[in-house]
Amino acid sequence: MARAKKNLRKSGRRHPLATAALVAVGLLVTGAAYAGFSQTSATAEVDLTSPATIEAGEKLFGANCATCHGAAAEGTPDGPTLIGVGAASVNFQVGTGRMPLAFQGPQGMVKPQQFTEEQTLQMAAYVASLAPGPGLPETQYLQADSDDEGIASGAELFRINCAMCHNVAAAGGALTEGKFAPKLTGVAPTHIYEAMITGPQNMPVFNDANITPQQKADIISYLKYIENQPAVGGITLGSIGPVAEGLFIWVIGLGAIIGLTVWVTAKSN
Fold first, then answer.
1. CA-CA-CA-CA torsion for 257, 263, 264, 268, nearest 10 degrees?
2. First CA to last CA across the chain, in angstroms?
3. Per the record, GO CC terms (predicted)?
4. What DSSP designation does 115 have?
């Protein structure tokens, strides 16, 4: 009888690592759920028309932006007016880390965000309250579509309107006076859409009369498609076109052929 009880205890005993594994799984699930909730709920919880949100944004603006843009966003010699730029412009510039500027230069550089998403939206709400301007994009136009027709439409629109600066592979390109068109891979759909409707830096504005919201969504679908597709041609060489490819062939390819020829000749002698 005692032996049977002992066997029962042995059979019911857990592996020493079982508890640790359960704790690790629980932490992973909890962390993932929290991250997903905080990302999706931040925008939903911030009411851009709420007086409390606008007041909070005004305080943040006064402490962090007024030095360059003026106490009432009227602009100064160091920064343009923000009256009429809309919530979309603020969300793009601050959300991508371009603002506040790290240093004075030809254009703002992407860097880690200085403010939380909630704080960014509060400042966007304040600027939007000053005068009408482009608002935040609707969620329905931010979902990358896997439909071939939408991707093909986006590719054609991108080629006509964007590729001359950003490169057909969205790898970016050089402009004049030290400016450049940034690469568009790894950019959030929200910021791609906002860039099209606000025209940041040297980029033109593509309003809904030029490119409809659905066409903007198609462009986003195309960009996400090429971002997630493997390079079928092998090494991309930065995707900057025939100059890099020609240089690679002449320097590396031809150099390898010459080196091989010298080696074979020396060996035969």
1. 160
2. 91
3. plasma membrane
4. S
Annotated binding residue at 191?
Answer: no
210 appears as a binding residue in the annotation: no
Residue 15 is labelled as binding a ligand: no
256 part of a folded domain: no
What total number of domains does the chain contain?
2
Considering the entire predicted model, what is its pTM?
0.74
Question: How crowded is residue 96: how many other Cβ atoms within 10 Å of its Cβ?
Answer: 22
Q: DSSP letter for 181, please.
A: E
**DSSP assigned state of 79:** B
**Residues 59 and 88 reside in one and the same domain:** yes
Question: Structure tokens of 24?
Answer: 């690790």
* Domain, as residue range, for 75: 44-130
Q: What pLDDT is attached to residue 27?
A: 52
- 65 annotated as ligand-binding: yes
Place of tokens 């919201």: 213
67 within some domain: yes
| 166 has binding-site annotation | yes
Cα 247 to chain center, whole Å?
A: 31
pLDDT of residue 181: 93
Domain with residue 180: its CATH number is 1.10.760.10
Closest CA to 216 of 128, 117, 140: 140
Reply yes or no on whether the pLDDT at 58 is more than 80. yes
pLDDT digit string, tens, across residues 104-158: 888 889 999 999 999 999 999 999 999 999 999 999 999 888 788 999 999 999 9
Cβ distance 164 to 115 under 8 Å? no
Helix, strand, coil % (nearest 5) of the chain?
60, 0, 40
Does 126 show up as a binding residue in the annotation?
Answer: no
